[in-house]
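Input.
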Amino acid sequence: MKINWKKIVGLTAAAAMLVPLAACGSDSNGGSNNAGGSTSGTEDVTLSVWVPQEDQDGDNSWLAQVEANFEKEHPEYKITWKNDVVSEGDAVTNVKTDPKAAADVYMFASDQLGGLMDVQGIGELGSDAEAQLKEQNGDMEIKSMTGSDGKYYGVPYTDNTWFMYYDKSVFSDDDIKSLDTMVAKAAISFPLSNSWYIGGFYDGLTLFGEDGTDADAGIVFPKDAGEVTKYLANLVANPNFSNDDGASGLADLKSGKTHALFSGTWSANDVKEALGDNMGVAQLPTITVNGQTKQIKSFSATKAAAYNPNAKNPKAAAQFAAYLGSTESQKLHYTLRNIIPTDKSLASEIANDPVAIGQSDTMANTAILQSGQSGMSKWWDPAQAMGEGLVNKDVTADNAQAKTDDWVAQVGTYAE
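Output.
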């Protein structure tokens, strides 16, 4: 979903981090040696941690278990934990407020990487954590953690993208290959006015280079973007299409008014409740524009754990951030909260999960990397305005090219 950049979460632990970082030697995990004051042979360490509310609900929450497991793995530390509630989507906003007062360890959405780097609020992975990143993850996930300097920041624990849910009693396996075929057959809903989704129709769109790390490359639209906009204007006029405003799509699916929904893993339980055994999950279909087949491609990103280089105990912070994304922690996350892991060694754990398969197929075949460059912030408002213009029919087949030119001028360029 589009990040809510303006939301600020109250932080009870911020004052605890107003301490300057002592000069120390580096270690292989990207942290530093910082001796504590304990005389018992262990190091006294305080770690402040930001994770979503759902990960710390209850005495036996995912976070509580991971912290206990980390303590067992690292008996050299005597840890005082200071946990606070900050979602992945709000991490960059809160870190930017005061990087030195931000948590030692936090979870973040990968498209925030550039913003976190800009304020020096995210630590580079050391050699051990980098090896973990590359061993556990595929190319897309690794690229999502790659900064514009070519270095690595953060350890992913789940993918973040959208795909297609559909009613198997209405659409066949062949039908779902083409959105045009689906719309000709039955009603579907799509969140066209949402800026995280509308870009999916512009096959050939690139976000800061092919791997998302080239700040100078910018946002580049395909040459035929105007024709795609014209296609979308005609799609909106189709009585079998409805815009999903974030709630209407699911409501219409439950009532039987529509038979396909485009969303992510967070909608799985609701869709299952609506469709039961008829719930289908698949990668994205194609469309046909001027006789040319175009692939719908979702923005793909990850959610990851990172450490703050301003932490008082950066070595322990770096180790715990990597542990949040470890195989053991990802497996527990899936068991407790159905958070689908990125770790390739856990493939057997999700082999019979249709939602996991649909997400994996989408990441591999019908997605582009949502860049972590800070310039990505230019995308959201103009893209939303274009989507709303289409839904409100202010953008029509007749003015599609002119409206597209205006949009492109705001955020990027056309391909040469």
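The mean pLDDT is 91.
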